[in-house]
Structure formats: structure tokens, C-alpha cells
């Protein structure tokens, strides 16, 4: 569904991570962990802001065309939260939103994490911005987080402070590797949930396969329409191409074919 | 609006490759064109298949489609019966394949017409079927020989003599034209020092609108000078009501919406509203080709 969501809050989570809380009752009711929201971004006006600088209707996004996908970060009653790293013009624009702005949001899209039956020992492995979509899993009993970042400067400390589950940090600049930490923890009963750069996900997949442990990967790929029409978000699996916006963005690691 | 032998309830058309066959949208448009269907199923290109550019979108989907047999058996039944006319986009590597697809589609109920995708490259030399008049005519003739359905020839935008290609298609039996396909384009990945799209990309979206509009205008002016009636579905970067009017004035009698529906699913409704505001009481029909000098 499509909703005009009111920005309720904007928070800086540390490093270049930000979080927006958006009031969107219809989407909030339906969204499940691992599903994504599809947001319009760009230099168009924001309904409801009396001091808006440019009063152009939302249709006229001139430069930034595609909606940006963000996985559900947290649900707070009738509001949903998205968390993101500022990496380009779209996220930069989002970071500049203020309470009272209205965002055009579509969602929830895709299939989320398979959590039935509930995993007894969910082990989340996040590389950089991947932590945003894995966040809901950290509230599950028995959850643990392994978080990989390049350096101390790139760690969202405010966000980690909110994590009640035990967590370990692995910093590349110190020669630490979240996949190595993962390997030390793989044993029967553990289920892995990972989100991060492709190279990391590939190694997570291999480690889990060796240990006979199930892994669900939250994948990121360019998303076009988000509705199965343009076929732009295809990823390669053993059975051929599969659309992330339809069968993903969460995929069983074993299904994927790596080039 | 009249587009050759087709009667559309309004001038808007959903472009090929922009909506899912599995889940056709119920949009207030005059017609909907399917993803290009080939004789055999095609799985499409490896990712990445999309790249946003300023005011544009590059794609390299690779004609992913279920193949004509699966299309007829599994998808067509669910596509029939909508209020918008259904056109099927036909693709092929050679005239024989174009004809094979057209023949397999036959005269199934529910198909109002065919759009011939002449941006397909031919296997031997890689040139697009719509790149010159005689090649384009061969493809059109092959389809005409096996199908009596209304036929629009969709042309690639950078054929050197596009008006001549267009006329050759009409001579060969096409009922109208669809102008234009997305523009071949390039992006290079700085990290890998290679093209982003190993199999070639094409640009669509607002950035191409002035380029597409010129081609519609050039073809329509040429056809008018030759005394031919105008039956053109125009498009490329249309995002608002005012854009639709530009293409109508350039000679199109229907206008396709593609990239805009990816990010604004309400685009058809919105654009109809914008058109109504711009036109007031004037019938759109009276404006077709109004800017052709």
C-alpha cells in the first residue's frame, strides 16, 4: 500500500547512521521483519510544511527517480522506523528531513525473515549498514549480534547502546573479522541471519554450509518498481533468477548461486 | 483516441516491460503492452540490471520472459478481460522467430494487437532489426504474413534514417508505429574499470524526453508530408500531463508511460487529472500533430 507518512522523529545514531520514525498506521500494521519499505526521495516539496522552500508537487522528482528501499528497522505502535547510512544523494536528502515532513512510502514489500518456528538461538551477523534490517531480530530471546565495521569512526554507538542482546564488534582496521567470530560460534541449534557486503555474505554462506547450520541472508540489490514488473532486482539462485522484491529480500543462503 | 485501427478509451498506454504479467495493474489507461515475448523462454541478464542516472534510469534486463507457449497457457488467461486494451510485445532474433511468436499468439481472444519490438539485435551482425528500412520491413512482413492483428512497429531511437524506417514499416503492413525504445547508453564502474552492464544498457526516464520527442516529431512530419495518416504511439520520459501534450502536438495520438510508473504507481490517474486541467473543454483529438510545421 501507499501512505503519506509523517516524520515524527529524526535521530543521529552515531557515525553516518540516522534513523527516522514515520507515522504510517497502515504499513506499520502489516510490516514484518525483513520486509522493506519503498520511499520517494528528492527535491520535491513536503506536504504539510508551511515553510517549504519549493512548493512543487511530489510527482516532480527531477533528479532522483527511483524509490529507495529500506528494511523495517523497528515498529513503534502506528509508526515504523527506518535506519540508514548516508551514502548518496537519496540518503542525504532523507537525513535532512524534519518532524512534520511527509514522505511518500510504499510497502511493506517482499517476504521477511522466516521466523516460524522461532529460532532458539538467532545469531545476527551485520556488516556496516546491514545492521538496520537485522535489528528486529535482536529482540528475540537468545539473540546475539556480531557487527563488523571498518573502523571505530564508522560504528553507530547510539544504536549499539540500544541493543540488549549480547554483541561483539569486529573492526577491519584491527584485523578483526566478523566471519571468523561467526565460525567460532557455529554449532547445532544456531540459526544465522546476515546482512552486509556480498563478499561477507558469501563467506557466511560457506561457513554455515561447512557447519551444517541454516542461514537467512537479507540481500541488497538495485530495486526498480518493487512490485515484480521491471525485473530489475533479479538475483541468481540455483533454480535461475529470482526477484528480490517478490521472493526476497530475505533468501535462504543455500538457494543462492554466486558468480 | 484512435491509434490506427485501435480505439483507446484514453491516450495513455502502459509501456512494455514495466508491469508484472503475474499481477497486471488495474490502471485507468487506454492500453497495456506486455513484456516482450520471445519464442523460447529467456532468463534475462545477470545483475546488476538497473542503474539510476540523473533524471534517468539505465536498464539491462535482457528480455527476461516466459516464452510464448507459457505466456499463452499461464499468463494470458489472467490478462484478458480488463478495460484497457491488451497488446503483446513480440520479439525475435530473426523474422522467423518474430513470425513464430505471432503465429503462436494467433488470434486468441483478448489480444487487441501486437507491438513489434524492433530493438532486438539480429544474431548474425548484431544490428537491430529496426536500424534500417529493409531489415525492418522484412520483420514486419514476416509477422503480417501470419497475423491479421493490428500491428505497431516499435523502433529503436538511433536508426540513422528513422523516418524512412518508419515509412518502410507502414509500407510492409504495419498499422502504426511505437516511438521510441530506450536509448542505448553506457555507465562505467570506477572500482572494476568495466562497463556496469556487460550486455549493454539503455536509458529511459525524464532525461530522454526531448530526444524521444524529436524523433516522434521528425517521423510524423515525414509521414504527413507523404500524405500518410498518423498512427503513432509516442513516448519516452513522460512524467506529467504537460509531457503528454507535447507528444500529442508532435503527432502522437497515444502516449506511453514507462519509467514513471516504477516510482509513481498512481501516475496514470494523476496524469489524467493534469491533462483535464490543461485541456479544459478542448478535445485532445483536435491537438494531434498541431505542432507539425
Fold and architecture overview:
- The complex is a heterodimer of chains A (259) and B (293).
- By secondary structure, chain A is α/β, with parallel strands linked by helices.
- Chain A has six helices and 15 strands.
- In chain A, the strands form three sheets. Chain A has a seven-stranded antiparallel sheet with strand order 4-3-7-1-2-6-5. Chain A has a six-stranded mixed sheet with strand order 10-9-8-11-12-15.
- Chain B is 31% helix and 19% strand.
- Chain B has an eight-stranded parallel barrel with strand order 3-4-7-8-9-10-15-16, surrounded by five helices. A four-stranded antiparallel sheet of chain B has the order 5-6-14-11, with no helix packed on it. Chain B has a two-stranded antiparallel ribbon with strand order 1-2.
- The interface between A and B is medium-sized, with 30 and 37 residues.
Summarize the structure.
The complex is a heterodimer of chains A (259) and B (293). Chain A has 259 residues and is of the alpha/beta class. Chain A has helices at 25-30, 89-95, 131-134, 157-161, 178-185, 198-211; strands at residues 2-14, 17-23, 36-39, 68-71, 74-76, 79-85, 102-109, 121-127, 144-149, 167-171, 190-195, 215-218, 234-237, 240-243, 250-252.
Keywords:
heterodimer; A: alpha/beta; 6-stranded mixed sheet; 6 helices; 17% helix; B: 293 residues; 16 strands
Helix-strand layout with pairing:
The complex is a heterodimer of chains A (259) and B (293).
Chain A: E1 2-14, E2 17-23, H1 25-30, E3 36-39, E4 68-71, E5 74-76, E6 79-85, H2 89-95, E7 102-109, E8 121-127, H3 131-134, E9 144-149, H4 157-161, E10 167-171, H5 178-185, E11 190-195, H6 198-211, E12 215-218, E13 234-237, E14 240-243, E15 250-252
Chain B: E1 2-3, E2 6-7, E3 12-14, E4 31-33, E5 50-53, E6 56-59, H1 68-79, E7 85-90, H2 95-105, E8 113-117, H3 133-146, E9 151-155, H4 162-171, E10 176-179, E11 183-185, E12 188-189, E13 194-195, E14 201-204, H5 209-225, E15 232-235, H6 241-249, E16 254-257, H7 259-263, H8 267-279
Parallel strand pairs in B: 3-4, 3-16, 4-7, 7-8, 8-9, 9-10, 10-15, 15-16
Antiparallel strand pairs in B: 1-2, 5-6, 6-14, 11-14, 12-13
Helix pairs in contact in B: 2-3, 3-4, 4-5, 6-8
